[in-house]
Amino acid sequence: MTAVAARPTHVPPIAVQWSSDGDGVRIIDQRLLPGEYVERDLRTVDDVCDAIATLAVRGAPAIGVAGAMGLAVAMAPLASLPHDRFAATLRSTAHRIRETRPTAVNLVWAVDRMLAQTAHAAGDNRGTIDALRTEAQAILDEDRAMCQRIGENGLPLFPDGSRVLTHCNAGALATAGIGTALAPLYLAVQAGRRIDVFVSETRPLLQGSRLTAWELARAGIPVTVLTDGMAAGLMGAGRIDCCIVGADRIAANGDVANKIGTYSVAVAARHHGLPMYVAAPTSTFDPRTPTGAEIVIEQRSRDEVARSSLGATVPDGVSVHNPAFDVTPANLISAIVSDRAVFRAPYAFETGNRRTAP
Questions:
Q1: Rounded CA gap, 117 and 71, in Å?
Q2: Stretch (H or E) spanning 129
Q3: What is the pLDDT of residues 177-227, one digit of tens each?
Q4: Of 140, 179, 195, 353, which shows the fewest CB atoms inside 10 Å?
Q5: Domain 2-148 bears CATH identifier 1.20.120.420
Q6: 130 is known as an active-site residue
């Protein structure tokens, strides 16, 4: 994993792209934000899996894109292997990347899509490598276009003067484009609308305060950070008009898996009569998962909760519960904004139950 010089600007950041020489996947190392802006080039399967597992690159769309590009990068130097060994290495490399994080369906979707393309180049290592590169580029391009369409579809939901609460990071840092949940907000500001964003810090890894606040402030959008426990009080004080979050997996019935704490935001929003919106690409919809009850929730390290820069925050020997995600039932969600349309309950994604008006 190679660090390269940072080139920050006052536009949404580019979280995933090809390296300048085309032989690696360039990411922003999000573990270091907001204190330090560093871009890194991932050149091996170890680099890719480590970056995804340690959240150097994170967000369901971004890890799907990074996984696809990483598979292409990892296989590119191996054209001279005997074909049987090359094919076995492709399968094992794809499996490693695919299993790095279990909850976000985009990673599985992207890797499986990459493998499907290699069937047309059976017996030809170089043809397989070319097919992988072409498909990875297509996934990258589609993700950027997807973000734009989500922004356009969600734009009517945010009139001038909107005060919006978001949780975790579903912005440019979580995609290859301008984000999912933040995409309509970026377009609203570009259209001249006044938008104030309130960001819950998102314990334990602080993706809201570290990442969302960083990219919004960088883009000149007014942003206020609050601790996770303050959201309901802010709603009760009449200072929030609506909420919007991203998603890591959406079940067939509309149940949504997203960063831990999303369920609490949705419950509070319903109590206060506020719209709760979810923004996600079509690739996040999982028709094979009937409801949220079947979604596998990733359990992360004890140290994420039990330690901080101040040292231990939980006594030794005390257990920690640290799921990365929770599931918000579909009946708490006002609308799901995708790149195809704005869907409302009862959710029937495959049959086109949709409406684009707020």
A1: 12
A2: helix 125-154
A3: 999 999 999 999 999 999 999 999 999 989 999 999 999 999 999 999 999
A4: 353
A5: yes
A6: no
